[in-house]
Amino acid sequence: MSQVRVPVITIDGPSGSGKGTIAKLAAENLGWHLLDSGALYRLTALACQRHGVDTQVESAVERVAKHLDVQFVPNEEETQVLLESEDVTKVIRTEEVGEIASVVAVYTAVREALLQRQRDFREMPGLVADGRDMGTGIFPDADVKIFLTASVEERARRRYLQLKAQGKDASLAELVEALAARDERDANREIAPLRPANGALVVDSTHMSITQAVEIVLEEARKAGLLV
Ligand code: C5P
Question: What's the predicted TM-score (pTM) here?
Answer without folding.
Answer: 0.93
